[in-house]
Amino acid sequence: MSDARLNPEAPPSPEHALVRRQDYRPPDWWVSDVALDVDLDPAATRVRSVLKVERNGSHDRTIRLSGDGLRPLAVTVDGQEARWTMEGGDLVVAVSGNTAEIATEVVIAPAENSQLIGLYASGGLLCTQCEAEGFRRITFHPDRPDVLSVYRVRMTADKVRYPVLLANGNPVASGDLEGGRHWTEWHDPFPKPSYLFAMVAGDLEVLRDTFTTMNGREVELGIWVRAKDLPKTHHAMASLKQAMAWDEQVYGREYDLDRFNIVAVDDFNFGAMENKGLNIFNSRYVLADTETATDADFDAIAGVVAHEYFHNWSGNRVTCRDWFQLSLKEGFTVFRDQSFSADIGSEAVKRIDDVRLLRAVQFPEDSGPLAHPVRPDSYLEIGNFYTATIYNKGAELIRMMRTMMGAEAFRRGTDLYFDRHDGEAATCDDFVAAMEEASGLDLGQFKLWYEQAGTPQVAARVEPEDGGVTLHLSQSVPPTPDQPVKQPMVVPLRTRLIDVDGSGGEERLIVLDRAEHSVRIDGASDSALLSINRGFSAPVALTVERRPGELESLATSDDDPFARYEALQELAYRVLVGGGAPDPLVEAIGATLRSNALDSAFKGEALTLPSEAMVAERFDRADPDAIHATREALRRAIGTALGNELAEAQAATSTGSDLSPQAKGVRRLRTIALSLLSAGDPDRGAALAKAQYDQADNMTDRQGALAVLSMLDAPSREEAFADFYRRYREDSLVIDKWFALQASAPRSDALDMVEALRGHADFTMKNPNRLRALAGGLAANHWRFHSPDGRGYQMLADFVIEADSINPQVAARLVPPLGRWRRLEQGRSSLMKAELERIVAAPGLSKDTFEQASKSLA
Ligand code: TRP
Ligand code: ZN
């Protein structure tokens, strides 16, 4: 074969090459059709592919088909032996005409694929994960999102081991073969990029249902799982149908194929994947019943099912031109799933939870060495850019545009965007252009949000003047890697001046778009309270100059639930960062608990103190021991002062099978109250926690009680953990909770426990959920992870290095906690840095982990 090679001297493509947004060029060749013939076997799967290619424009360039770990067994062009060469992993083929059929054949080994990208084995199934660049591990293909093709797939497999054969689109034919094998052929009529390709083979059972679309078409729905899991699929199915109806009502988007299938797999790198007509899910986002899943799990399932379903329009029908546009689909789709969850649950609580996540994950990312714009400029490994910035900050950008233009113009904008770009690969600029046209707004300066990394710092101050007040605003955007100097952003601030009696001015939208800006507000009294960035209308870090007593008043009277929650948080920071006395906060929390006007869910949010990690973010150089001690002292003060109110909240119960927002709120408040109460009176807390654990008829109460026990030194703690393990040892998703709870327990022996669990028979690095439960639990344990002797850092680095040889994508995502080294006091700082250096020096390190660790050192 080598004499047929073209340019055998060509150097392999450099392995750690930076990919730049500015280098984007349209593809040299289109691929109109892909025909795959896949003979499935865990040890040796034969993949034959026929690509119909067409030259794009007039040029004489070869066609480059990306490959990762593939060896071509045969390559033909229009049935003739081809002239080809390998460059790195890629297959480069010479084609003389303007169109051709390129056929290739490879053999791959899914059972050996521990990266879980491409075709791999999970719990007896064979399944695929192709986003972002996994299709090239299955067959040679351009494998870039701006090349859209119609796919036809013939799957052949052993009928006993793999009775169910699924792929995108519709099944068109099937049959039996000799030797106990069978085949099914699938056809997907919608042209799609290769990252949306999917295939699943296995012994699966299905929960079926139907959905009738707004135009009266009946869609067959299926959720495919292993037989034992079938009873746990009903919530996911109900969520799917709700999401389908919601996308019709709110965005006018109808489903397009005749079937929609979801498959749950146990080994999965992320949450789920929106493959056209065949979503593949991490089983933790499908399977639930009240015995084994918490309310938070139920909510997460609804949110992720909706997210992946919504991608059918925001991602699949309109896809991304290149991976720098990732937020085009992810930011928009997160915004859509957030809105959906707000509509089916409590809007206020959903917003508070989303902002808490943004601040806990995205703000630190944006202020650290891995900061990047919502539309990045370069990457080594695209798998590292599935970040909170792309997803959650990206969603905030969509939300701000909607806030500025109003709901109706926003809907006209999304209609225009979907109509104009249906069937295309689009850019973030295309999205903004549709929004501008539909609203008449000039979003030129707003687009800086896509370009500039870093969280804008905004300061606000009110100055009384006769007959009104003046609101003085200023902003600055901190420097981030490769972006030393920033321009002022467009910051939409929903603002209201509230008179002390609760009356007062209307809410107005103030758009800060300069470095400094003063707004005169007539008719406001000089004692009015400043309620600003209501609903968290802009993802900024806001500092407000407060008059004495102003926060206390806002904490009990602001009519915007988010702003009210915010006032309580700021009161807590005064204690935790400013060293203030706890009394004002304790009083405000007491008033919140006793209020008849507030629901339990909101009370639960109000009682949730800033985490130690969030408190650390407010220091230039944090001392984790001091932060832990101060926060524990505050919890003790609250628990002691409000013991009776907390006990009353803890005593309130709701039936485990009741999943209404009200019932969930009661349970949420219950465990938070238990936790504070235990801080004030550990003996009483331990007794109540043990009772809550034993009497629980649902996982929310049981896990909540166990989490409280994990902090205490009562004999019932060990009893409960042993009982929990015995009860659920067959249920891997619950055992993940058991690992995570112990790893993240704020107790002095936590690192010993992590070490012991590392050797537990149920621990494996091959399952990403299990690895994240233990290693992620350790990193989330702020106080112990930052043990002053550096042992926590060393353990995390050990996890990273060992996991990297199995699953680089998941290993790389464990690195960022070490990248906070500049923000810790000197001793810890140098220990963290040393561990990052050890990771970078590890032999055979993947590109994924190399990028994260080396950037973290900068
Ligand atoms: N597109 C998926 C989502 O957000 C994310 C995803 C799932 C993913 N699996 C992946 C991204 C593997 C990269 C690699 O819904
Ligand atoms: Zn997504």
CA-CA gap between termini: 46 Å
* Largest sheet composition: 8 strands, mixed
Could you tell me the strand content as a percent range?
A: 15-25%
How many helices in DSSP terms?
A: 27
| Order of the strands making up the biggest sheet | 6-5-9-3-2-12-15-14
Can you tell me the CATH topology of the largest domain? Immunoglobulin-like
For the record, what is the CATH homologous superfamily label of the largest domain?
tricorn interacting facor f3 domain
Share of helix among residues?
Answer: 25-40%
Q: What class, by secondary structure content? A: alpha+beta
What number of domains? 5
CATH architectural grouping of the largest domain: Sandwich
**Computed Rg:** 28 Å
Bound molecules: tryptophan, zinc ion
Q: Tell me the name of the CATH class of the largest domain.
A: Mainly Beta
Question: In total, how many beta strands?
Answer: 31
Shape: globular
| Overall pLDDT confidence | 97
Taking pLDDT < 50 over at least 5 consecutive residues as the criterion, the unreliable ranges are 1-5, 8-14
